[in-house]
Write a structure and sequence with these properties.
This protein is an alpha/beta fold. It is 44% helix and 17% strand. The longest helix has 29 residues.
């Protein structure tokens, strides 16, 4: 799997919407992984769950619909490198941001539910079969498959490592990143509304701004994290946050909500405040 850089996306939101029209017949496969750590090149870091849900996004002009039998959800058995590392870890790290493998397994509900823990080879081959079946469906409706993930560089890398360790060929697909969409287009609009708009900000827009505005080491910024996005847009389904299958559904809902928000807001701003060179998505 390959993840294009932020520069590969359309320069502005209007062009992004034009691109979406070109892909209205595609099947969009949102996917997510859970893991034993963040450093995916380390031997003890492996996928523990791979989940995906396929949708017809209909160019974002109609409500997305799930593809029948388009859900993939498998857990990966812990391998010896992860087990050995876990056995040597402390109960918890001094750094509150660092999680032990045991803590990650609890957080991601690894030992809950009735999913069988399968080998990396079984999961990778099953994911290939899943993608191939959806390619046929997409071809029959005049489109292709498109893979999407939040913070896609991480999940794509985890998938690539899974395939490499299973000695299976990695799927040759591009992966779009919802986080880049949020950063490229949503942030500039919210920043304009917050700092430069000549009109009073609507209460619902102020709520979104306040939910996403954070204070960082280099000053205030607008968050593009999935958790903050779903809170800002009141997206339901976050009760199982940090399980792969729940995160997939939340990613789709977040992207859909943001695109609809930006499309409506763009029309509003163009009508009231032309020209607005400060807003890159209208350039």
């Amino acid at each position: 799997l390959d993840v294009p850089s932020a520069k590969a996306y359309p320069k502005n939101f209007k062009a992004f919407m034009q691109m979406l029209k070109q892909h209205r017949n595609d099947i969009w496969i949102f996917f997510d992984t859970e893991t034993t750590g963040l450093l995916y090149n380390e031997k003890h870091v492996q996928a523990t769950e791979v989940a995906a849900v396929a949708y017809n996004m209909n160019g974002f002009w109609k409500t997305p619909s799930r593809i029948p039998n388009g859900v993939f959800n498998m857990k990966v058995a812990l391998q010896q490198d992860a087990i050995s590392f876990m056995d040597q870890e402390p109960e918890e790290y001094d750094d509150p941001w660092s999680k032990t493998i045991k803590q990650l397994l609890v957080m991601t509900q690894y030992n809950e539910g009735d999913l069988e823990k399968l080998t990396p080879e079984e999961v990778a081959q099953s994911f290939t079969d899943y993608l191939d079946s959806l390619r046929l469906i997409a071809k029959n409706q005049g489109g292709k498959v498109r893979l999407i993930a939040q913070n896609a560089i991480f999940d794509a890398s985890i998938i690539n490592v899974l395939y490499s360790r299973a000695n299976l060929p990695v799927p040759q697909d591009l992966v779009w990143d919802t986080k880049i969409v949020f950063k490229n287009y949503l942030q500039s609009v919210l920043k304009f509304l917050d700092e430069k708009s000549k009109f009073p900000v609507k209460d619902e827009d102020r709520k979104i701004i306040n939910a996403l505005k954070k204070e960082g080491n280099w000053g205030p910024y607008m968050s593009a994290s999935l958790g903050d996005i779903i809170n800002a847009f009141d997206i339901s389904g976050g009760e199982n946050w940090h399980t792969a299958i729940a995160d997939v559904d939340l990613t789709m809902k977040a992207l859909y909500a943001v695109v609809r928000f930006l499309n409506a807001k763009g029309n509003f701003l163009k009508a009231l405040l032309p020209p607005i060179s400060e807003i890159s998505f209208l350039a």
